Amino acid sequence: DGTPLSICMDTTYPADGTIKLILNTATREDFTLYLRVPAWSEQNVIMVDGGCTVEWAEKRGYAPIRIPAGNGEQRITLELDMRVKCIHPIGVGFGKDELHINVDWANNCIIPSEYIEDPKSRYHIALRRGPLMLGSDARLGYHVDDPVQIAETADGMAMATLVDTDQIPYPCMIALAVEKTDGSSLLLTDYASVGK
Q1: Nearest Cα residue to 140 out of 105, 108, 102, 185
Q2: What are 113's strand-pairing partners?
Q3: CB of 191 within 8 A of CB of 134?
Q4: Which pTM was predicted?
Q5: Can you tell me the distance from the alpha carbon of 22 to that of 63, in angstroms, rounded to the nearest whole number?
Q6: Contact in structure between 34 and 46 (CB atoms under 8 Å)
Q7: 14 preceded by a cis bond (ω within 30 of 0)
């Protein structure tokens, strides 16, 4: 209706999944604010004015938040799922090959091709915390090509603990100790910060 709306945000996202919003408005009528919930976030909690809690179970989309008329200041907190997700290659465990499409840009044509899964791919895994992919770096004290086995929960998550980034010998956004199947842990940082 043309009424000005001020939104202040307090967050360290994507290093952390807590996003606090303070809305200031003197609206003459109720309106709905839609908060985007990213597809990777499987468990989400939205708190309105510290009291009303809405569990947003949708895997993606926009969560509607009703803002009452003339409310003045409204505080909203969005808690995104920051567990470490284990991502396995496509087709692992399905026991069948898949058809893929390759594009030959030089000849302007599409070429269907069969993708035959590498038998070793079942041993490969990628780790993601929130929107950030994780990576290893030799500067953390181990050889990055050595095989490791990550402990994985039944729902496909790795057990991980945040580590103070001051303990890392290079600048990084996040650092995590990820549990391995032998009980020890593997130190990882955000992929954008690791060496080449």
Answers
A1: 185
A2: 100
A3: yes
A4: 0.76
A5: 17
A6: no
A7: yes
The pairing of beta strand 31-37 with beta strand 44-48: unpaired
Cβ(63)–Cβ(84) below 8 Å: no
Query: What is the rounded CA–CA span in Å between residue 12 and residue 4?
Result: 26
The tokens for 191 are 């992929």
Distance (Å, whole) CA 126 – CA 180: 14
Cα within 13 Å of Cα(163), Cβ side:
19
> Residue-wise pLDDT tens for the chain (196 aa)?
777 888 999 999 999 999 999 988 777 778 888 888 898 898 888 888 856 566 655 556 888 888 877 667 888 999 999 999 999 876 544 444 555 667 777 777 777 766 666 677 767 889 999 999 999 999 998 888 888 999 999 999 999 999 999 999 999 999 999 999 999 999 999 999 998 6
Q: In whole angstroms, what is the distance from residue 113 CA to residue 160 CA?
A: 38
Q: Is residue 68 helix, strand or coil? A: coil
Specify whether the CB–CB gap between 165 and 172 falls below 8 A. yes
Three-state DSSP class for 50?
Answer: coil
How is residue 146 annotated by DSSP? Answer: S
